[in-house]
Design brief:
alpha/beta, eight-stranded mixed sheet, Rossmann fold, single chain, about 40% helix, about 260 residues
Length: about 260
């Protein structure tokens, strides 16, 4: 198993457009800003996390594909970003063909776990895995490797329906692949305080899942939406905007939960 100091958190939701990659980038940046050493593994073939951290496609000499096929190590594939203490293993379109390449291999769901098991000497405090917006072999690899899953959930009408499907998926992975997988927490994204429906969704999710739901609400925020086009996390693009401040609060909650877990 990867060293306990390498806390592996998979950020997943089979629904697209919920702020998954935005959460991965900005949570990682906030953790790095307070001195944690952080690695993002971009497992989405679209590579939005890589682009959002300013990693040009021409600079992605090695990627998470190379990690999963076993040709290179984490140390070889990781790239430093403009954020101190934050590295990323970028994504390329090669990932689209991975499922066909390894689907017959007996260890096909454990490829990422095997790669991350070798990171003990690299001393990352947190490894965040950004998943594609679907449940496929890439997401299975992420969940098989992780200690816990963080679920971004958009404050919209169908949120609870999609969440119940995802929680069942996590239970299936726990039963068949990774018995120690836990739910790190549910983070409510794209919250609009002017929208009564958004507040109702917040209330419903908190009623159903209680303490699993983070107190921090990530608001809809233009500056957060603009930041990826500049190849920057929102926290670097505009630290004072409401979205950046919310992700800093979320990072504090994540660390607080980790301390409580270790003390338990």
């Amino acid at each position: 198993m990867a060293s306990e100091r390498n806390r592996i958190i998979t950020i997943a939701n089979q629904k697209g457009g919920v702020g998954k990659t935005t959460t991965a980038i900005n949570l990682a940046t906030a953790l790095a800003a307070i001195g944690e050493r952080v690695l993002i593994v971009d497992l989405d073939p679209q590579g939005n996390a890589s682009t959002g951290l300013g990693i040009q496609r021409r600079d992605r000499k090695l990627s998470s594909y190379d990690l999963l096929v076993g040709s290179h190590t984490v140390e070889e594939a990781a790239i430093d970003t403009a954020v101190p203490n934050l590295s990323i293993i970028p994504s390329t379109l090669d990932l689209l063909g991975l499922e066909m390449e390894i689907s017959q291999q007996p260890d096909r769901v454990y490829r990422l776990k095997k790669a991350l098991d070798q990171t003990g000497g690299l001393a990352y405090s947190y490894i965040l895995v950004d998943c594609p917006p679907s449940f496929n072999l890439l997401t299975m690899n992420a969940m098989a490797a992780a200690h816990s899953v963080l679920v971004p959930l958009q404050c919209e009408f169908f949120a609870l329906e999609g969440l119940s499907q995802l929680l069942e998926t996590i239970n299936q992975v726990r039963r068949g692949v990774n018995p120690s997988l836990d739910i790190q927490g549910i983070v409510l994204t794209m919250f609009d305080a002017r929208n009564n429906l958004a507040q109702q969704v917040v209330n419903d999710v908190r009623t159903h899942l209680g303490e699993k739901v983070y107190r921090t609400l990530i608001p809809r925020n233009v500056r957060v939406s603009e930041a990826p086009s500049y190849g920057k996390p929102a926290i670097l693009y505009d630290l004072k905007c409401a979205g950046s401040q919310a992700y800093l609060q979320l990072a504090s909650e994540v660390i607080q939960r980790e301390r409580q877990r270790k003390a338990a």
